[in-house]
Design a protein that fits this description.
Blueprint lengths: L14 E3 L24 E4 L6 H5 L6 E4 L2 E5 L1 E3 L3 E4 L5 E3 L10 E3 L10 E9 L4 E9 L12 E8 L3 E11 L8 E7 L5 E6 L2 E5 L2 E6 L3 E6 L2 E3 L14 E6 L3 E5 L2 E3 L11 E6 L7 E3 L2 E3 L3 E6 L6 E3 L2 E3 L4 E5 L7 E3 L2 E3 L4 E5 L20 E3 L2 E3 L5 E3 L5 E2 L11 E3 L5 E4 L3 E2 L20 H33 L6 H41 L1
Parallel strand pairs: 2-3, 3-6, 4-7, 5-9, 6-10, 7-10, 9-11, 10-12, 11-13, 12-14, 12-15, 13-16, 14-17, 15-18, 16-19, 17-20, 18-21, 19-22, 20-23, 21-24, 22-25, 23-26, 24-27, 25-28, 26-29, 27-30, 28-31, 29-32, 30-33, 31-34, 35-38, 36-37
Antiparallel strand pairs: 1-4, 8-9
Helix pairs in contact: 2-3
């Protein structure tokens, strides 16, 4: 089986300002008699409190603002709060694994029940926690904390919230041989929603962002995930993936850039976005740019109802989309799937001539691929199972259609693939028989993008309403209310500006692609 043996991490505790890095400028705390006197609602570190944890431990601090500097501590959060840095100059860098003294254990009904993790920022059992504008550096976490089997940069356990403009880097334990995560999200109790956006994760050993559990909805968008590349090449147990949805999770992954993910493991392949185990049907994978990985998108182990549309899946070491091991009802539409070394789409099965790990339990039923640009791959679609795979109405790189079975000059297909009609054929849905090849795919991408933005707006509005309901469920001062309302306005303005920017960039690129495709 090609299941990438996944992992997780967690932890948190009191910390001290770092002074071990002689090249770093640590924040300067005020005299002792001026500390611990603010009490909120906005508390500053280190000018009001000497450590981040000290401010977090003060209930009146609804917003903890952290100045630039290097902080040698673990942060443990178990209440609703805003943790806000000043950008990449605000660095949480534990000096050793012993700093991660508070551990987290996955509940009984998670995929890995009883697994113990350490984390630099540990959020647990909270209704809504924001982590904003800071950097987490795991460079000194070269071994596991005592009692833990995995580590993470940020861990949300049974918690909801927002992670925005955060960098997580160098979560590498025992030379990539131990599972580590950039951001680990899980919930199996009360319903939780976590949004991760505008963030960066670099250099990890297992999953950059992990979304686990039937109570969790993960909205993962506009992030850049850059794996270790060749750095882990000599470690067979290192199987870095980009985003993992597993074990009942719901949500979407949109507008992310994912690259540099490879493994030498004989039983696995690294995936840009990976779906494993039955999920909440309807997860949308859209407008992502995935390149220089093994499999750009992998749907496996009975994962169901994944919608893969409008992505650019190109120049990967294996395939654009991998379907295997009982995967059902995957919809692959409007994608650009080009330049992949093995195939645009691979439908797994026991007859794969390459043998393990490719010769695998085949996918289930209901998987289809329509209106994609599948060109420049070694094969357009390969099917190593007896089931018929519906790949009608795609562009194969040639007006003559795919080869060699169709006798065309486009990307090749194997037996058990339905490929006709293909784009450049009015039967594929064009209202005009003279419409040029693959214009329809780009028209569909425009419609899909508009739907994506509308859905994102609905999700954002719902999150703001939920945060407002939680905030006003308890008494607050006028100053606290003003701060909260200002925060909501800022988030709304930022969201609207991002949507406007995304729309402009998409429209420009899509129009250019359509014009080139039609030439």
């Amino acid at each position: 089986m090609r299941f990438t043996k996944l992992a997780v991490a967690v932890a948190g505790c009191l910390g001290v300002l770092a002074c071990s890095d002689s090249t770093a400028v640590s924040p300067t705390a005020p005299p002792q008699d001026l500390r611990f006197t603010v009490g909120g609602p906005s508390c500053n570190v280190p000018s009001d409190y000497p450590t981040i944890q000290a401010a977090i431990n003060t209930p009146g601090c609804s917003t903890v603002k952290v100045a630039n500097g290097i902080y040698d501590e673990q942060v443990v959060i178990a209440r609703d709060v805003i943790l806000q840095g000043s950008g990449n100059g605000t660095i949480l860098r534990p000096s050793s694994p012993t700093t991660l003294a508070t551990l987290y254990t996955y509940p009984a009904t998670t995929f890995w029940p009883g697994t113990v993790l350490g984390a630099v920022v540990l959020v647990q059992n909270s209704n809504f926690v924001r982590v904003l504008n800071l950097k987490i550096d795991g460079v000194n976490l070269t071994t596991l904390p005592a009692g833990a089997s995995r580590v993470a940069g940020i861990l949300y356990g049974e918690s909801a919230g927002l992670i925005d403009n955060v960098t997580v880097t160098t979560m590498v334990v025992n030379g990539y041989s131990t599972r580590s995560y950039g951001i680990d999200l899980s919930a199996v109790g009360a319903a939780r929603n976590v949004e991760v956006k505008n963030s960066r994760v670099t250099n990890w050993s297992r999953n950059a962002i992990q979304v686990q559990g039937a109570s969790l909805t993960g909205n993962i968008h506009n992030n850049t995930l850059t794996g270790p590349g060749a750095a882990n090449a000599a470690v067979p147990s290192a199987v870095p993936n980009g985003i993992l949805f597993i074990h009942g999770a719901a949500g979407n992954a949109t507008a992310n850039t994912i690259s540099a993910l490879h493994t030498i493991a004989t039983e696995s392949r690294s995936g840009g976005i990976f779906f494993y185990d039955p999920l909440t049907a309807g997860i949308v994978v859209e407008n992502n740019n995935i390149f220089d990985v093994d499999d750009a998108v992998s749907v496996s182990h009975n994962a169901n109802g994944v919608i893969i549309r409008g992505n650019n899946l190109h120049a990967n070491a294996e395939v654009g989309v991998q379907l295997e091991d009982g995967a059902t009802d995957a919809s692959i539409t409007g994608n650009t799937i080009t330049g992949n070394a093995k195939a645009g789409i691979r439908f797994g099965g026991a007859s794969d001539p390459e043998g393990p790990p490719f010769a695998d339990t085949p996918p289930g039923t209901g998987n289809v691929a329509h209106l994609n640009n599948i060109s420049g791959n070694l094969y357009g679609v390969v099917n190593w199972d007896a089931k018929i795979f519906d790949a009608t109405c795609n562009w194969w790189g040639s007006l003559s259609g795919p080869g060699p079975i169709a006798l065309g000059t486009g990307d090749r297909v194997t037996t058990n693939v339905t490929y006709t009609p293909w784009i450049a054929n009015a039967a594929c849905g064009s209202s005009t028989a003279t419409q040029k090849p693959c214009e329809m795919a780009y028209d569909q991408k425009a419609k899909d993008f508009a739907a994506q933005q509308a859905a994102a707006r609905q999700t954002f509005d719902a999150q703001q309403r939920a945060a407002k309901a939680v905030f006003y469920s308890t008494p607050h001062t006028d100053a606290e209310r003003k701060t909260f309302e200002s925060q909501q306005r800022t988030e709304k303005n930022t969201f609207e500006a991002q949507q406007k920017s995304d729309k402009s960039a998409f429209t420009t690129q899509n129009s250019a692609d359509k014009l080139q495709c039609s030439a």
